[in-house]
Structure formats: structure tokens, C-alpha cells
Amino acid sequence: MKYFFIQLLFFLLIYGYSQAQEAIIINHTCTDLSRIPAAWIDSVQQRMKLHYGHTSHGSQLITGLGMIEQNNSDYSFIVGDNHLPSEEGAFCIFDGQEDVLAVPTIYYWATEEGMQMTSDVLTHNPVINVSMWSWCGEMSTNDSAEVQRYIDSIEVLEARFPQVQFVYMTGHTDGTGAASGDNLRASNNQLREYCIANGKVLYDFEDIESWDPDGNYYEDASDDCALCTDWCNSHPEECLPCSSCAHSHCYNCYQKGKALWWMMARLVGWDGESQSDYVEQYVTDLRIYPNPVNEIIEIDLDRNYERILLQIWDIAGRSILNKEYSKSQLIRINVSGLANGFYFIHLQTPDNESVLRVVKE
Fold first, then answer.
1. What's the Cα-to-Cα distance from 104 to each of 130, 253, 258, rounded to whole Å?
2. Fewer CB near the last or first residue (10 Å), C or N of the chain?
3. Does residue 61 sit in helix, strand or coil?
4. What tens-digit pLDDT sequence spans the chain (361 residues)?
């Protein structure tokens, strides 16, 4: 068995497994690109399509991606304004909505019109499998009811599009200080607690710009990114230039871009720790249906195989099932006991290996 699966340590569990998926939290600990095996970056470029709605602060992630690519062409990406671009070997991003590029709350989740805009993008571009939206300064003034309204709206979108992974985001720092009991951190903490309790994916915007790579916390962090200035003064070799980083320092954008690559690698199947450069490839002659699935999923192989090893793990890299089949072409699995969410099915035959991404709803 290849190294990737040695590290997963799959073990046999019953189909009645019902524990909620573990949250994926993308924060300041997720900015070291050297820890992500190159094959997982390739896998993101091959398999992941992102829809991203944002205004000026959210553009920091796109700027960061550009800085990374300019420094290392292995991190190729392409952004389409109001459309999903197509470029082989590049991470493809739909930027904005179909009719607007700047996406405030009302154009993504806060109004029926915005919800419809988001739905239109995902309906018209069924290959998109991740959607995220970035706050501007709203979390500094939001009360708990408004944060909950945001959560409720994303839950509605999740129900409409179970094949899409929606990413929650905290609001950016505003210089008010963590010790003051300020509104920003109360709002962000409400969102963090929800994501952890409900197994969501959170891109922690505030956290990323509050800690330097040595683990020093900047209590009064704000757009000027004092930690960026301090870090680049002492580590100039780690700081890349940029033409502009909206509202902030280039190093802030750089860190945000690295965290986005980390998140996408996690969503495509990397466990966040493995250093193996082995990633299974999709095999096009397999059919899996229905997908999304509620109860019974069927996998139709291209022919009868004497021996088939099947393994299932969730998006957090936890083992769900390890089972062997013999003399089979059609495999049926009862997944009714699994929590709703994304799963990966790995199949190994004497001839090849493949991984299939499925959605349980």
C-alpha cells in the first residue's frame, strides 16, 4: 500500500457511523506551502473550481495568489471576472457574480436577490465545487443576530447545492484589540464556535493577520499590518513585492494566498499532515451513482475484477470504511448512516487505483 494510505491507517467501521465531520479551520498555522506535497497542489489545479464573492478586503486573497505564482509557476491559477475560466494545469476561479464583480452582502447572501445570484452561478457552472464569500468591515458592527442570519443563509445555500463546499469567513482586524471585548471578536468568535460545532470549513481571515510566523500575537492588529512590517524588516528574504494589497501590506496578501492554497489542498483530500507526494488519480471508466447520495450508492466498474479493495474517508481524513470485494463489477454501499458532507472513496484493483469524490445529503 502506498505511503498516503499507510498514514491514513484505515480501519473497519460499521455503516451506522454518524459522527459529524470535523471542522477544517484555516488560520495562521496554514501558511507554510513547503508542507503541502506538490502532488496535492496539482490535484487542486486538476479538480477544484472555486466561486469567490468579495469586495476590496477579500481581494487580498487573489493578490496573494498572484504573488505566489509570480515567484513559483507551479502555483498556476486563473481568475475569470464574472465567469469560470478554463485553463489546463491552473486553479480556476469564478470571481464575483454573473452580473457584478464587487460582491457586498446583498449580492451573495443577505437578500433574496443575492441568494439568487449565488444560485445562478452554481447552477450555470455545475463543475464549481467550492464557494466562499468575504466580509469587508461588517463584522466590526454586526450583532449576534446578523451573524446568525449569515449562518442561516449559507445553510440554505448548502441545502440547495449539497455538491458544493461552502466556506465561512471571519471579518478582518480593525485595531480595536482583543482585550477590550470588542464587537469584531465577539462576532468572529460566534462564527468560529458555530463552524467547530457543526463541522464546517472556516477561512479565519482575522486570525491570519493577527499572528506572525513565529507565533507572536498582535493584539491590536489592523489594516496597516504591523506584524507584516516587523516580519519583513527582520526577514526580508521571505517578503515578496506586489503592486498593491488592498488596504494593507503586501505580506498580508501573501499570507492570505498561501492559506487559500492550503485550504484547497485540504478540500481536495490532503489530510493537512501527510508529506507523501502520492495522490490517486481519477479513473474515467468508473461510474458512481447517484451523486449526491442519500442511502444507497452504486459503483459500476469497467469490468469484473477478482479482487477490489474499497476505502472511504471523510474530508477531515478520518477513516470510515475498509472493505474487500471479490469477483465483482457492481458495488453497492449503504451510506444512510453517514453524516451529510463530502467523502472520498478509494478503489484499488490489480490494474489501477482511483479516488471518487461523493456527497452525502
1. 19, 20, 24
2. N
3. helix
4. 333 332 332 322 222 233 346 899 999 999 999 999 999 999 999 889 999 999 999 999 999 999 999 999 999 999 999 999 999 999 999 999 999 999 999 999 999 999 999 999 999 998 999 999 999 999 999 999 999 999 999 999 999 998 899 999 999 999 987 655 589 999 999 999 999 999 999 999 999 999 999 999 999 999 999 999 999 999 999 999 999 999 999 999 999 999 999 999 999 888 898 887 656 554 445 678 888 888 999 888 767 888 888 889 887 667 888 999 887 778 889 999 898 888 888 888 887 777 777 888 8
- Residue whose grid cell is 507554510: 32
Domains with residue ranges and CATH for the chain: 31-268 (3.40.50.1110), 287-360 (2.60.40.3080)
Q: pTM score > 0.85 for this model?
A: no
